[in-house]
Every structure is written in structure tokens, then in C-alpha cells.
Amino acid sequence: MMEYALILVSTVLVNNFVLVKFLGLCPFMGVSRKLETATGMALATTFVLTLSSISSYLVNEYLLTPFGLEYLRTISFILVIAVVVQFTEMLVHKTSPLLYQVLGIFLPLITTNCAVLGVALLNVQTEHGFIESALYGFGAALGFSLVLILFAAMRERLAVADVPEIFRGPSIALITAGLMSMAFMGFAGLVRG
Amino acid sequence: MNLSLHSSPHMRTSNRVNRIMLLVIGALIPGILAAIHFFGWGVLINITLAVFTAVATEALMLRLRKRPITPFLLDGSAVVTGILLGVAIPSLAPWWIPVLGAAFALIMAKHLYGGLGYNPFNPAMVGYAMLLIAFPREMTLWLTPAVHDLTFVDNLRYTFLEQLPPNWTLDGLTAATPLDAVKTQLAQNLTLTEIHQGSTELFGAISAHGWEWINLLFMLGGLILIYLRVISWHIPLAMLATLFLVSGLFHLNDPDTFTSPLFHLFSGATMLGAFFIATDPVTAAATNRGRIIFGIGIGLLLYIIRTWGGYPDAVAFAVLLMNMAVPTIDYYTRPRVFGESRD
């Protein structure tokens, strides 16, 4: 039980995928201009990340390893992720057309979110079991969502701040992300390893 | 509801930014005097360097941004940032530590965001966290409280030339802060009782030796600020109560591995953080409900990082992390507009 809790704390705070591992920066910068879009993106990514983490574990464990096809790992994971994203897209389209419209191009772009592939590959590298993989993916997604939502709320404020001309837009957003990353270094050492 | 209308003349007060900042500086003085007493002239040297750099950087940035210099400089916010950073830096730091920290704080955390009123992060804490991450060795050179007799000139020589008087060594002068020492020894599987017996010089009457006085005097200054309505009670109370409750629960449960609530309240930067840093009106939450959430968050993060994290004290990180959450907190604690439905 304790080790599962540690996986969650580690992925959400200590090794946050965005602010500490610097993965998934494209949606972090791209979909953080408004809080509502960011919340939708966070939900969609959480769903995709958890599901793709589980399915890539299954593919690796029951297809790739038994047949000695480990060299196909990256490409098959990309395929698995693309399928999961497509599934999510259909689901969102049916259940919430509004969210579908708001997310627009960013929904299919979850496929290229490096955090998703990163989680799948790191799961194999650290030899996680089934539950660990699921928790690792879920924790990574929680950390991503947390940071994305906080960042979006901050950016809504930055939009009305008297930022010097040359720093408006992406540059002040990147500086903010850097300062956030610095604050997250306070969690270093909370979980060993 | 009392809607009586008062006819003129109305009494006016001058609640301007510079009055607030002057009161804050005044309330900091007792704590700073205690810090000078325990940690020597270095505290004063650090504050002077940090304030000077902060004001100079502020002027430079205002000039670059083509804003009027004098009115913004006279509001005193740069001075307060400089003082807070100077107090937080160990007294035996080389001169470039406060200078670098203050310049970084003013440029990156304040003026790139548009100056006073727009900065999402507390500038002094951004400067401090940057120094702590980038120069861990220089940021741990704390003097042993009140046992040294380093003169003003000696300290000045060390700050600028990094030369100590002959026969003196850094190891002989400095010691780990009580928070740091207790943490290290707990990691070596010693119990708190053993630590108390083994290193009595660390502990004072109620908490850590030396630090307890600094914290008490900062608390006094903070209470005066609350009495004068410069800061509201919500954030300090929420933060200190959370820290007290959480550390109390863990301490009661296992008094040999978790330090007492009093030790947490009166050591490190707790009181300075609760009354002077977390209450910064620009970077803290705006509503009273939001302020309580903000304070609770700082208290919790402070305890978590101090107890299980890699850093011995965590006021800067806890404040920065909660600064990050402030826009979200404000978004969800917006007061309901009259007539708006409850959901």
C-alpha cells in the first residue's frame, strides 16, 4: 500500500512530468491560455494517459516480450497511444460536443504529447507491474493536470498584467513556467529514488 | 443592514503604499535586532547589500521600462524585498550572494511581470529559492548563535574578501541550524531524546536556541501589524494553526521521531514567513476564504517538506508553491455577486 502511495506522490509532485522531467511541454504551453480549455485538456489527458499506460503495459507484457519483439517497443507504443487517443476523441465527440469543439486540434495532438509515450517507456524501464503501471500513468496525468490548471489560471492574470512589450505572450509564460519549476524543486528528496 | 449616509466632513487617512511599507519595515526591526544579536553584523551587512541592490535594480528597470522613477522608488516596496531577502540569507555569505539574489528577485520576479501589483511570485522568496538551489554551500554558512565574537570589521572582510582572522576557520564558526541538525540526526536513526541529550546547545527554553527569540520578536512585529490593520489575521493564523495541529498530531503519535509543535513554530523562518512573507498583499489570495486556504496550504507544505523533504526549512518553497495556486484559489473563492445563483 505504502509503495503505491509513494508512486503517486513521486509522479505528482517530486518527479512532476512537466516541471521536473520537462515532458509534455507542448500542451502545457499550447492549451493554457484559458482555464476552461485547460481543465478539459487535463481531463482528456488524464483519461488517455491512464488508459495508454495500462494498454502499453499489456502489449509489452503479453505481445512483445513473449515473442521477443522488444525492438518494436517504441513504434507499437505509438500505435497503442494513437488508438487510445482516437477512442477518446470519439468518446468526447459523442458525450460532450462542446468540449470537443473547445479542445479542437489539441485532442488528436495528445498522440504527440511526449509525456504519454514517456510514461509508457518509463514503465517498461522501471519494470513496473500492472497496478504500478496504471498508478504511474494516473499519477503522471494528475501531476500534469494540476500544473496545467494552476498555470492556466496564472496566465489569465498575466494577460492583463503590465508586462514589458518584448516579454508579452510566450516569453513571460516560459519564465513563469521556469519559476514554477524552481518552486517544485522544494519537493526534491521527498521520495527516495 | 445599516445604510446610513454620513454627511461631510469625512475623516481622511493616508493609507498609501509607502505608509504600509514603512510600517512593515518598522515591525521588522525588533526581529532584525535579535538576528544581529545572535548572528552578528553579517545580518546588517546582508540587509544593506540586498536593499541597495534592490533599489538600484528597481531604478534601472523602471528606466528601461520608461516608467516614472521617483514615485515608484519612494513606495518602498523594493526596500522591503531587500530587507526580507537580507534577513533570510546566512550572515557569513559572500557579498555577491545578497547582490545576486536581490537583482534576480527584482528583475525576474517583479519587473518582467510589470512591477508592483502584477508579480505572481513573492520576489524576495524567488531570490532566496534561486540562491538556495544554485549556491547550497554558501546558503548554509550560519554562525553558531551568540558564541562567536566576530567584530564588524572581521565580518566585513569576510563578506568582501572571504578572509577570516588568523586561527579562525569556517568550520569552527559555523554550525548547522537546529532544523538542519535535528533532521540530519533523525536520519541517522537517533531518537529525539538522544538528540536533546547529545546536543544541548541546539535547544533553548521553548524551541531552538537563539532562533526562538528571533521568531518571538518577528511574531511581536507581526501582531502589531495585525493590530494596525496593515495585514489581516487570516493567513498567519491559518498557517500557524495548521503547522501547530499537524506537527502536534505527529508529535503526540510518536514523540521520538517527530519534533514538537513549539520547535516548529519558533525555529527557522516560521514567524517571518507567517507574518511578513505569506501576507504580501500582491502575491497572497485576495478573499478571506481564499486567504485561509492559502495559509493552510503553506502550513501543510512547510511541515511536509521540513519533515520528509530534502531541505531543512521550507518557508520559501511553501510560499512559492502556494503563490502558484493563488489565481486558482481566487477563481474558486470569488464572492458571489448579489443575486447570482448559488451554483
Automatic annotation (TrEMBL), chain A:
Predominant location category: membrane
One term under GO cellular component: endomembrane system
Pfam families cross-referenced by the UniProt entry: Rnf-Nqr
Coiled-coil segments on the chain, per record: none
Family, as annotated: Belongs to the NqrDE/RnfAE family.
Record's function text: Part of a membrane-bound complex that couples electron transfer with translocation of ions across the membrane.
Name of the protein this chain belongs to: Ion-translocating oxidoreductase complex subunit A
Organism, as annotated: Thiohalophilus thiocyanatoxydans
Taxonomic path: Bacteria, Pseudomonadati, Pseudomonadota, Gammaproteobacteria, Thiohalomonadales
UniProtKB/TrEMBL annotation, chain B:
Cofactor(s) this protein requires: FMN
Short name of any one Pfam family annotated for the protein: NQR2_RnfD_RnfE
Chief location category: membrane
Transmembrane intervals: 20-38, 44-62, 69-89, 95-113, 125-144, 210-228, 235-252, 258-278, 290-308, 314-333
Keyword terms of this UniProt record: Cell inner membrane, Cell membrane, Electron transport, Flavoprotein, FMN, Membrane, Phosphoprotein, Translocase, Transmembrane, Transmembrane helix, Transport
Membrane topology: Multi-pass membrane protein
Record-listed FMN phosphoryl threonine modification sites: 177
Family: Belongs to the NqrB/RnfD family.
HAMAP family xref list: RsxD_RnfD (MF_00462)
Function statement: Part of a membrane-bound complex that couples electron transfer with translocation of ions across the membrane.
Stated name of the protein: Ion-translocating oxidoreductase complex subunit D
Species assigned in the record: Thiohalophilus thiocyanatoxydans
